[in-house]
Write the structure tokens for this entry.
Amino acid sequence: MPISFFELNRQNQSLQTELSEAIQSVIDKGQFIRGKEIEQFENQLAKYLNVKHVISCGNGTDALQIALMSLQLKPGDEVIVPAFTYIASIEVIVLLGLTPVLADIEYDSLNISIESVKSCIGPKTKAILPVHLFGQCANMEGILALAKQYHLAVIEDNAQSLGAEFKFNNGESAFAGCMGHIGTTSFFPSKNLSCFGDGGALFTNNDDLAKKIRMIANHGQIAQYKHELIGVNSRLDTLQAAILEVKLMHLASFQSKRIANAKLYLELLSGIEGIELPVKSAFSTHVYNQFVLRIKNGKRDLLKSELAKNGIPTMVYYPKLVNEQAAYLNKCIQRTSLNIAEQTCKEVIALPIYPELKKEEITDTINQLELTLKSI
């Protein structure tokens, strides 16, 4: 049977009783907007992440936009962001009249490069937006030091790395998304913690920012019909919160299975010529939202095509830099070389990694990958 790149039904079936009961409870109460499950889920996630405030919203992109809006930046203000990322990280910056300044990434971790960030800082720089890519943390110790030195805000895009932990040099640790001024995440169905549609959240330890974020997400209201800020309408609905409550209780198990799958991949891939394995940063745990490796010698696209013919699905995250997309050709500033990001777009490929992936499916994937590499 063909292997699925992502298969949510296996997870849903294992949780069917719990999910059905949670959904039916919401239906019985009839509170589909702002039901009590919203607050319950926010409190439970805040406890899990050891962060003071979790504010849910409609999706991960909304979370990024609301975070930027809460900082009251002005048109033309600059936000440093990695060039190698999903378009949402750039999209919200441009939509708000701000200017993205593109930083390069580290070759090993694929996360934003501290040295590149340094070279991007200018007189109009107001914020850094690191993306915790593929399941592990960017170098937040370095980012926070730069932010303190230059009086910059830090918004963490944590759509892919919920549950990853950063280890500081002093021995302390913190979860991804909970170190900067604001963190954001997505509950899209393919994420480590997922709902049955769109959903997102913001994290902060700052009381004033939390108050402002809640207002912005609810039409700028401080109370009904009392609008103190320009806001948006971005809500996590009650059904999705109920689903997320159930899945949050199983998140540790999901993470363990992803890590076990990644360990098996790394063992089976070791020694295969023409690839470079993903590298886990010493300062971060890795929750493997994606399992991404490099295919060398210009063979990535041919490998992907040949694997597909043999029922092995793969994905390319990401085939182009954000400033190469038609909509953003003249929207970004580049003050530094993006050589590593450019090379990465040509080499990376992702293999299936979801928790319910079977051992034999991983073995079949690697056997076919090795055979294909030898034949192309």
Q: What stands out?
A: The longest helix spans residues 251-269. The chain has a mean pLDDT of 97.
